[in-house]
Write a structure and sequence with these properties.
By secondary structure, the protein is an all-alpha fold. The chain is 65% helix and 2% strand.
Amino acid sequence: MDPTKMRTQTEAQEHLRDTMQEVNTHQEAHQGTNGVDLSQYPMSDLTDSQKYTIAFMWNEEKLAKDIYLELNLIYPTQQLENIATKSETVHQALVEDLVERYDLNITNLVDYKENYSEEELRSFASGEFGIQEIQDLYDTLYEEGKQSQQAALEVGCKVEVTDVEDLLNEIKVAEEVDAQDLIAIWDILLSGSYSHYWSFDKGLQNLGVTDGCCSLGTDFCHPEYPQNENGGNGKNNQ
């Protein structure tokens, strides 16, 4: 082959690679790291209560991720590991996109203030939170979950039901003011929580707990949650 043509072909390939890198960088800048393009939604005129909700949900998603990871160290199970690493990590990052979008500093949730700081968010160690209510819930659930593998999966049921209840309420609030960006993120988290509930339910049944999450009582028994033949709703199912 003519060396000139070979050089031309190589240059073309390098140019194509560089162009694709530029395109990907541009897309990431406008789409975020989690596959949700918040730029397609208008900025919402949020109340202080709704801004607080964003901060609160970041902590709640962190609670789910942290407690599943910590309990998985004691009782390694597919549900705990997969949901924590493949879903809850993403969910926490999705809410952080909202935290950054609205320039919220949530280190002290009691007196929430503005000015987003990634460094301050990263300062929270596993099992540490910026609001006492979340801290107390984590501490209680961790003590429950570390008792046995069954107890660890039961904690999963409790966490996901709590998430569903909070998200359903916040979706209604967001719809009232047409906060499209919040609705988009809350819908993704809700879909995941339904799926995770059924995953923990299945895990309990595999341990011989016939009623799954329903064995915990009516507060945590939700056969109405969407599901498919794999034990989830078809989205974010782990």
